[in-house]
Amino acid sequence: MAIAACFGGPMLNILLGVGLSGSYIIFTGGGEPLHVEMGRTLLVSGAGLLTVLVATLVAVPWNGYMMSKRMGWTLIGAYVVVLTINVLVEVFL
Q: Which of 45, 60, 80, 89 has the fewest CB atoms nearer than 10 Å to its CB?
């Protein structure tokens, strides 16, 4: 259940948060396309999320569908790395 929530939560957020509001803006704006500016932090966050989700998708079956402490610490470490990169990109670039 927790693994499914890790994949389903971000997808639901993207579909409902961006999809519905974007559709509303397109339909009320005369059908013009919606331009989303792709900033560096958004790119780092998206790449980090995709990397962690794909790695989890591979690592969980490889570990016999068991979430060990090592895997938990690895996920926390990945979060800290992506967060640190985002802060550094925002501050220095």
A: 80
